[in-house]
Specification:
By secondary structure, the chain is mainly α. It has one domain: Leucine-rich Repeat Variant. 68% of the residues lie in helices and 0% in strands. It contains seven helices and no strands. Helix 4 packs across helix 7. It comes from Dermatophagoides farinae. This is WAPL domain-containing protein.
């Protein structure tokens, strides 16, 4: 994925998160539109990015295995290092995009059991587990690298708790109504990543 394409997708998804988090009408349109099928397209994008990240992992493993029995020169080591750095960056891009789509979906289903059921019905195996895994990766990455503001981290944690609640309760008769948005949350808190730490991923303030 080119840097410009990633920056554009990342910025657009983060903008959508801001809009959806604070506008019930937009959430309703995304979750219920049958002609546009926004929900289906978001889920398709999510699992496409998850698969692309997994594919990069497999390629990386294969690359490392191919060098295990080779007597490497210094030039070969440098070449391998550059390839690993490139694949690591690509994997991070796919993982960040998938996590941001998870945040967007989490905002769409906040405080609405019907929307949660719609998402539950469209997920593979009716499980929120893939979404939970992506957000846990983002949470852990944010804590390790300090690329996200405190409010951004709190937003991720709230959506993560919502998905975990849904994963537990959707197979039961009741749902726990967990709100993502606090009254004092402001629109620039979803999610924020420091420019100097994110390799020029602009437009997320």
């Amino acid at each position: 994925m080119s840097d410009q394409r990633f920056d554009l997708m990342f910025t657009i998804i983060c903008l959508c998160i801001n809009l959806v988090a604070f506008c019930e009408h937009i959430r309703y349109i995304i979750m219920t539109s049958e002609t546009r099928n926004y929900l289906g397209k978001l889920c398709d994008l999510l699992f496409k990015k998850i698969e692309e990240a997994a594919q990069v992992e497999r390629q990386t493993d294969h690359l490392l295995e191919s060098y295990e029995t080779v007597q490497m020169t210094e030039a070969m080591q440098d070449n391998l290092l550059m390839q690993m750095i490139s694949k690591s960056g690509t994997h991070m891009e796919y993982s960040l995009l998938s996590a941001c789509v998870c945040l967007l979906l989490g905002c769409c289903i906040q405080e609405n059991n019907q929307h949660r059921k719609l998402l539950y019905d469209i997920l593979p195996d009716h499980s929120f587990k893939p979404l939970i895994e992506q957000l846990k990766k983002l949470r852990d990455f944010a804590h390790l690298t300090d690329i996200m503001t405190q409010k951004g981290k709190e937003r991720v944690q709230k959506v993560l708790q919502l998905f975990e609640s849904c994963n537990t309760t959707m197979n039961q008769s009741s749902l726990i109504d967990t709100s993502i948005i606090d009254d004092d949350d402001c629109i620039d808190s979803v999610p924020e990543i420091d420019d100097e730490d994110d390799n020029n991923m602009n437009g997320t303030d």
